[in-house]
Specification:
Layout (H helix, E strand, L loop, with lengths): L26 H10 L4 H6 L10 H14 L4 H10 L1 H6 L7 H10 L1 H17 L7 E10 L8 E2 H14 L7 H8 L19 H15 L3 H20 L4 E2 L7 E4 L5 E11 L5 E7 L8 H12 L6 E3 L7 H9 L3 E3 L11 E3 L4 E3 L5 E10 L4 E10 L2 E7 L3 H11 L2 H8 L2 H13 L9 H26 L4
Parallel strand pairs: 1-7, 7-8
Antiparallel strand pairs: 1-5, 2-3, 4-5, 5-6, 9-10, 10-11, 11-12, 12-13
Helix pairs in contact: 1-3, 3-6, 3-17, 4-6, 7-17, 8-10, 8-11, 10-11
């Protein structure tokens, strides 16, 4: 047995070519190929003229994509790698951008990420790596960079607003006015209606302290600014029909996570092809997946056109009758199970136009009526079930939903629906391998940017593995 040859007294730190330090099939080459094919003219115009030279946008993009592959979200850690790690040094073209440059670039270039994602999909399509015969859709909640304990509700905001009104009067304050407002309380004490553990949240305390300090300094302008913030927060709650408001990330929403707990989050959506490539991604504020089916397919069609006869697989959370009808009219083959309901227990016979109960009693069609609330005609079916009259109000889309239900009860339908698990593997890669369990960027645009980067990184790894795989 012999030892591997070492180079203890080497005369150089790196070999003549830095690429000798990593494998020929490293994913960084795919990153380089994709980013080199992008159009950076918008940056050329932005940085044209006098001033300090800017880092080439392809450099920032390359190291951000590599960071996504490695599951790095911290701008400081990415910058550190750009000066120490051979792969990052190669991709950064030995420029080593600082963390602020990386952070700002990531926040402000959502459009470039979309262009990158499109270019990657184009590359995959040209190399026959995409299979659009089957699309699987799923969503997951990802925690926002916001503290739930700092959320305030409308009632608390109204009390804060009243608190300001009770302390600020037109003109200059006088001692008599202070006595009216504070009584025996000191300047820094909370009013009684906010002086309990539930209401003394960090956000409330901070605002009250700002108000009190501004009064002490006779700074009415500062008080007006705080008051404007409260008014804007109340307006935001009304405009968005929200119950709570997060000052750290106003775009985030309270959602139920996988463990059943409630936290400030975003709803991340992906569509994967039959090979597991993420061909569309988005981040939305609605916690309910029912409204995401059509937008997801629209996003796919934007890049690939209408896909007739393509199978669409989704869980029951996406069942929305009108949206299913829209996709059926476009020619999609739907595999979306129905939610449990009393009506779903009855089997519909489309040829005989009857409903059959679980105990085989028949409900016959008796007429139709116009439902003003729904804005459509509903069909009434009546029959005796277990000795009692039972009525079903059928919507026009029920026939389609029943056809889908019948299809999913066949052995082939069950087999196809099980293939939807491939989209769950996509989220597994995003959370486990890419490390995106919570967002570090705030706001809906920041979340979209961060999630988009992670999806591109996930695709880069999968595509690189596919093109490096030896032919069978």
């Amino acid at each position: 047995m012999a030892y591997i040859k070492t180079y203890r007294n080497q005369n150089y730190l790196f070999p003549p070519k830095i690429t000798d330090l990593f494998s020929e099939n490293h994913v960084c080459y795919l990153i380089e190929q994709i980013t080199d094919s992008l159009n950076y003219s918008q940056f050329d115009e932005k940085y044209d003229g006098a001033g300090h030279p800017a880092y080439p946008p392809r450099v920032n993009l390359k190291i951000l994509l590599m960071a996504g592959v490695d599951g790095l979200t911290s701008s400081r850690k990415i910058a550190k790698n750009a000066s120490r790690d051979a792969v990052y040094i190669y991709l950064s073209e030995k420029t080593s951008p600082d963390f602020r440059t990386i952070s700002e670039f990531r926040k402000k270039n959502l459009d470039l990420l979309r262009q990158t994602s499109f270019q990657l999909m184009k590359f995959a399509s040209e190399n026959d790596l995409i299979d659009l015969s089957q699309l699987s859709i799923d969503g997951t909640t990802i925690k926002a960079d916001a503290n739930k304990s700092k959320c305030v509700d409308k009632e608390t905001l109204e009390k804060l607003e009243k608190y300001i009104e009770n302390q600020i009067k037109e003109g200059i304050r006088v001692d008599e006015e202070e006595d009216k407002v504070y009584g025996e309380m000191g300047m820094q004490e909370l009013p009684e209606d906010l002086n309990d553990n539930e209401k003394r949240k960090p956000f409330v305390n901070k605002i009250v302290e700002e108000i009190n300090k501004s009064i002490s300094d006779n700074d009415e302008k500062k008080v007006d600014e705080v008051k404007d913030k409260i008014v804007n927060a109340k307006q935001t709650l009304e405009d968005r029909n929200q119950k709570t408001y997060s000052p750290t990330d106003p775009d985030s929403r309270i959602m139920i996570n996988k463990k059943g707990g409630k936290e400030l989050s975003y709803n991340a959506q992906i569509v994967v092809d039959k090979n597991g490539l993420i061909i569309y991604n988005d981040v939305v504020q609605e916690g309910d997946d029912r409204y995401q089916l059509v937008p997801c397919i629209d996003g796919v069609e934007k890049n690939f056109g209408t896909l007739k006869d393509t199978k669409v697989l989704a869980d029951k959370g996406y069942e929305k009758a009108k949206d299913l009808k829209k996709l059926d009219d476009r020619g999609y083959n739907l595999y979306v199970p129905s939610k449990k309901s009393k009506k779903a227990e009855f089997k519909y016979d489309e040829k005989k136009d009857i409903y059959i109960s679980p105990s085989r009693e028949i409900l016959n069609k008796t007429g139709t009526y116009f439902n003003k609330k729904r804005g459509e005609h509903l069909t009434i079916y009546k029959g005796i079930v277990d000795g009692k009259e039972r009525i079903i109000h059928a919507i026009p889309e029920d026939k389609l939903i029943n056809r889908i239900k019948d299809k999913l009860e066949t052995p082939l339908g069950k087999k196809i629906l099980r293939q939807r698990q491939i989209v769950e593997k996509g989220f597994g890669d995003i959370k486990q391998n890419r490390g995106l369990r919570s967002f570090s960027l705030r706001g809906i645009q920041g979340a979209k940017t961060e999630f988009g980067l992670t999806c591109i990184a996930s695709n880069l790894v999968r595509i690189n593995n596919m093109i490096q795989k030896p032919p069978s």
